[in-house]
Amino acid sequence: MKERLAAFAEERDWQQFHTPKNLAMALAGEVGELIAEFQWLTPEQSTTVMSDPEAGGRVRAEIGDVMIYLTRLADVLGIDPVEAALTKLEDSARRYPIDQVRGSAAKR
Amino acid sequence: MKERLAAFAEERDWQQFHTPKNLAMALAGEVGELIAEFQWLTPEQSTTVMSDPEAGGRVRAEIGDVMIYLTRLADVLGIDPVEAALTKLEDSARRYPIDQVRGSAAKR
Amino acid sequence: MKERLAAFAEERDWQQFHTPKNLAMALAGEVGELIAEFQWLTPEQSTTVMSDPEAGGRVRAEIGDVMIYLTRLADVLGIDPVEAALTKLEDSARRYPIDQVRGSAAKR
Amino acid sequence: MKERLAAFAEERDWQQFHTPKNLAMALAGEVGELIAEFQWLTPEQSTTVMSDPEAGGRVRAEIGDVMIYLTRLADVLGIDPVEAALTKLEDSARRYPIDQVRGSAAKR
């Protein structure tokens, strides 16, 4: 997907706009649209949002947009997002040991 | 990674907190931290942020966090984020034909 | 407050950083910190967050930060934020007539 | 404005949706729309956005929306946003003494 996104930008001469600063903004803009889909739903209602074809379609499209800009941003920064996520997950595993944090949402 | 994140949450009894609504908020919170790394940089400075070990390390960690919550959110919604991104990319290819939009950032 | 914020920036020679683009990013970063305070709370728990001195103090500080950057952004754009809000409120009053939308969160 | 927003919500029986959690999400959604207006502009272009009637009108409307949800969120939390901002500004004045930080965007 990284290559397809890079080609998409290059064909349109859009690399000039794809600085990390601008892509971080585009990512934030898309996350804003995604969060708007959930703002008036209860947590319970949010778990069944995909069973509504219209709202579900919008949520799927927004997830796609967020994924596009996250992938593109990571690419122009030279970061592998999966590797970065796994490193963070290992950090979190150390910071939140299972036997100490079960069932608690408190931040450390 | 999807499975590792799900196991991570299950071991800590955190699925109760992982509603789509809450995960969308967590995603937005992490994107806020990511964007803060770029806010005072010029677009040019943002392109070399990874050459600064400290700022670069923070950006990598934030990309990891965003990837974690995006993957987790897509998982609880039953969405494949790569597939959703590719669908959106095809939409965009139709909406932004190469010969009509070259070099222009105008929205359609 | 607008004048105090402008003086604060001028004394520190920070106007150079205070472009609308950068201030919009700073605003988004602060809103990210604010939303993180609520991400794992139920809607009910969120209504009593101010009764916890620690969390309440953080929320108050984040509201302050958001207000600072919103005021500063509006100022450099030459917009009166209260006037802009009242104009939008009148639009919303027309789009959401009381007798048609009572109790419904549906978007129009 | 606080009272007008509260009346607007009450007339429509919308207080049920206006928990701090939901309002923080609505605020983040509006900030996402605002930031999208600036994402492909250079910092220099962003300083003249208001001279374009269309883009300028959208920016003004988004500033209004952000102000609405910030005011409403602060109100349901019992926070005076101007007071919260002034307290934060005093903190910042102490943390960023004029003679030490002139012209530098480094965080403390």
TrEMBL record, chains A, B, C, D:
Pfam families membership: MazG-like (PF12643)
Top-rank lineage group of the source organism: Bacteria
Database matches in InterPro entries: dCTP_Pyrophosphatase, DCTPP
Protein name per the record: Nucleotide pyrophosphohydrolase
The organism of origin for this protein: Micromonospora globbae
Lineage of producing organism: Bacteria, Bacillati, Actinomycetota, Actinomycetes, Micromonosporales
